[in-house]
Write a structure and sequence with these properties.
Elements: H1 27-30, H2 34-55, H3 57-64, H4 76-79, H5 87-96, E1 111-116, E2 126-130, H6 131-147, E3 155-158, H7 166-178, E4 181-183, H8 192-203, E5 207-210, H9 212-224, E6 236-239, H10 248-258, E7 261-264, E8 277-278, E9 286-288, E10 293-298, E11 311-318, E12 329-330, E13 333-336, E14 350-351, E15 355-358, E16 363-365, E17 368-370, H11 372-379, E18 385-396, E19 399-408, H12 416-431, E20 436-439, E21 455-457
Parallel strand pairs: 3-4, 3-5, 5-6, 6-7, 18-21, 19-20
Antiparallel strand pairs: 1-2, 8-9, 9-14, 10-11, 11-12, 11-13, 13-15, 16-17, 18-19
The protein binds zinc ion.
């Protein structure tokens, strides 16, 4: 039995495996009641914070500025007094203290893995992990994967880039820890998707990991090659890197296309490879596995933790990371949380609508807030449209115009006027905004093997 760890950082028995019919990987923790979990998380939090204070010049400086010492942390309300950490701050600190920044809490020769962001929106951020971090992260992955139904008998196809991006590596480490068969196929090379289709048919993996955009792209390629994606016989598709798997109509499309279940996981690059937001097999929104990463939902303006049932910005704190721990990392995402019980019985709160937006992704058009995920949900709820879409915002004189570009799917003849009208009506009803719809010839919109960029804002705000 995998016991409740009381020392920090915890070490886990790498040979431990639950029985195949056991629903919980760590029964001791996953069947706690809310109060027991609260105490358990608080104890881990105290130890993590003490460690960070002793080892991280970055956090010591931040906390000294507000007069905080680890002994002050007696309850969560004390923790809530700590300042947030932003991605921008981490980047600036790494520029001043290259390459790892002043939040590196281990000596450079103890670094086991180096990863980072791709740097598409500025200077990349560098991430370091210790060997212990890697093992704990693998344990966390295996535990969450167990929760959504993966077992050592599974074969897991990892269809995402093996490079700086940590999502692929986290999935791989979890699969290895569980003892399932790992199939690290990767993605992103020219012609690789066609090859993926062939390999999927030949090897018949039972599980798939990637981004939702990529799964849909792969399905489209398969259909072009005359293959029904159901022939792959994949029973579990799990995703991170994009919010799509939590968008109801995208989830429905993935499940109907592949005939397997669609599972949403993931938080943000700085927290990876810990996948501590993850759905269980009941798929009622991602659980916040609070004893691995402690997550708060914080009101974007008042900066106070919001009650269950309300919307806020997820703020993350590692509870098992020693190399470069994040404390109160401001995600900038938006979600809603609940503590309504889940059929799985775990005490973790959930994000029933997934992570559905980013404060900085929101487009304001004629005073109306539009989230790309809302448009995604509408487009993919309409039969006859392909999975791809673009949102183009323009400004004519003083009026903002929002155009949604879509394509018919390749299934056959469509009444294009009817498709356009249906979409326009639905967008108007749900968004409360008149939107232009452009139906483009099938295959016009760019496909992606990684994360899709679907918003083009042509307005000038000078
Ligand atoms: Zn559950």
């Amino acid at each position: 039995m995998n016991k409740v760890e009381t020392k920090w950082p915890p070490t886990y028995d790498r040979s431990y495996l639950p029985k195949n019919d056991e629903p919980y990987w760590n029964r001791e923790v996953e069947t706690m009641d809310a109060e027991q979990l609260r105490q358990h998380v608080l104890e881990k939090l105290k130890r993590q914070i003490r460690y960070v204070y002793d080892h991280s010049p970055f956090y010591r400086k931040k906390w000294s500025a507000v007069g905080f010492e680890p002994g002050d942390l007696k309850d969560f309300k004390d923790f809530e007094m700590l300042p947030f950490t932003t991605k921008q701050e981490l980047r600036e600190d790494q520029l001043e203290n290259p390459p790892f920044g002043s939040n590196l809490c281990i000596s450079p020769d103890e670094i086991y893995h180096i990863h980072g962001t791709s740097g598409t929106t500025g200077k990349p951020t560098v991430f370091a992990l210790s060997k212990g971090d890697w093992e704990r992260m693998a344990e966390a992955h295996a535990r969450i994967m167990w929760g959504f139904g993966l077992r050592p008998t599974d074969k897991v196809f990892i269809g995402s880039v093996f490079s700086l991006y940590m999502g692929s590596w986290g999935a791989l480490a979890g699969v290895e820890r569980m003892g399932a068969a790992a199939f690290p196929f990767g993605a992103g090379q020219p012609g690789q998707t066609e090859k993926a289709v062939r390999w999927l048919l030949d090897v018949k993996p039972t599980a798939f990991y990637g981004t939702p955009s990529y799964a849909l792209y792969l399905a489209e390629k398969a259909k072009e090659m005359g293959i029904d994606p159901k022939e792959f016989n994949i029973r579990i598709l799990f995703f991170s890197g994009e919010p799509g798997a939590g968008v109801p109509s995208t989830r429905k499309r993935i499940e109907e296309t592949f005939g397997g279940i669609c599972v949403d996981t993931g938080s943000m690059a700085e927290m990876t490879p810990w996948m501590a937001n993850g759905e269980c097999m009941h798929r009622q929104g991602m659980h916040l596995w609070q004893d691995i990463v402690y997550t708060e939902l914080v009101h974007p303006e008042t900066k106070q933790v919001v009650p269950y049932g309300e919307e806020g910005v997820p703020v993350y704190t590692h509870l098992e990371r020693e190399a470069q721990p994040m404390v109160r990392l401001w995600s900038g995402d938006l979600s809603l949380w609940t503590n309504e019980p889940c059929p799985c019985g775990r005490p973790y709160p959930r994000l029933p609508k997934g992570i559905y937006g980013r404060a900085d992704d929101m487009i304001v058009v004629r005073g109306v807030n539009v989230y790309p995920s809302a448009v995604e949900d509408i487009v993919r709820s309409i039969d006859g449209l392909s999975d791809e879409f673009r949102i183009v915002v323009t400004r004519e004189n003083i009026m903002d115009e929002l155009t949604v570009q879509v394509e018919p799917d390749t299934a056959g003849a469509h009444d294009t006027n009817a498709l356009t009208n249906t979409l326009q009506q639905k967008l108007k009803t749900v968004l409360g905004l008149t939107v232009q719809v452009e139906l483009l010839p099938a295959g016009t919109l760019e496909r992606t093997e990684f994360k899709a960029r679907r918003v083009i804002d042509k307005r000038s705000f000078k």
